Amino acid sequence: GRANAGKTTILQRVCNTVDKPEIFDGNGNKLELRTFSVGHHNIEDELVFRSNSGYVFHDSSGFEAGTAQQFDKMKKFVVDRAAARTLQKRIHAIWYCIPMTDYQRAVTAAEKKFFNECDTGHVPVVVLLTKVDCLNLVAMEELLEDGMEMEEAKSRAAERESQLLGKWQAHIKHILDRCQFPPKIYLPLKRKYFICNRGWP
Predict the structure, then answer these.
(1) Please, are residues 181 and 115 in contact by the beta-carbon 8 Å criterion?
(2) Which residues are bridge partners to 52 per DSSP?
(3) What's phi and psi for 143, nearest 5 deg?
(4) Looking only at Cα atoms, what is the longest distance across the chain?
(5) Does residue 132 contact residue 196 with C-beta atoms inside 8 Å?
(6) Which element (helix H / strand E) includes 57?
(7) What is the pLDDT of residue 69?
(8) What rounded mean pLDDT belongs to the chain?
(9) Of 109, 117, 111, 112, whose CA–CA distance to 98 is shortest?
(10) What is the pLDDT of residue 88?
């Protein structure tokens, strides 16, 4: 997904750690973190957390800033690893992160390009809607604009937030489900990345 979507935070949550991952190249050589710049990653590299070394992650550069060459490299990696015969090389799931901080432009040309061109075969693609908590502020602003007092707006914000999430998640699903290779499922994440109850297969 795009840069600053909360990808690293999700991985830390899954592995129950606040530590940074160790990074290894495709040959198993450990790389120094200082050699990486924010938002730019080599998808071939392996990210492993000491707290849960059974998981191996691969992180792509943010698509919205990527060149055609970067996208093609990511696409080749995904297609090749999805079809890999050896368990060690095969990818088992793909998480595509969309931050709800950009809820009004949640589906960009980058998302459409990915879901129209990347055939992942049997490997499921899960769309993770990250930073859902930002919709609480949007809900508060809407309620105050409707003329509610602050205390009443606070008490009604969770309900309005849920309505906004449903609206925008349905909007995203409507667009991506029409792509050639649509996601398998959509999962919103909030409150330190606990999974919400709203999700469509």
Answers:
(1) yes
(2) 49
(3) -65, -40
(4) 61
(5) yes
(6) strand 52-57
(7) 78
(8) 85
(9) 111
(10) 81
Encoded tokens for 133: 């908590």
Tens digit of pLDDT for each residue in 124-165?
999 999 999 999 999 999 999 999 999 999 999 999 999 999
**Whole-angstrom Cα Rg for the chain:** 18
The DSSP code for 19 is S
Q: In what order do the strands lie in the sheet with 52-57?
A: 30-31, 22-24, 46-49, 52-57
The pLDDT, as a whole number, for residue 9 is: 83
CB 97, CB 5: distance < 8 Å: yes
Global pTM value: 0.83
CB 193 within 8 A of CB 132: no
**Single-letter code of the amino acid located at 52:** N
Query: Per-residue pLDDT tens for 149-158?
Result: 999 999 999 9
Query: Which residues make beta-bridge pairs with 94?
Result: 125
Q: Is the Cβ–Cβ distance between 115 and 182 less than 8 Å? A: yes
Q: What does the angle CA 23 – CA 128 – CA 20 come to, to the nearest 5 degrees?
A: 25
Distance CA 20, CA 186 (A): 26
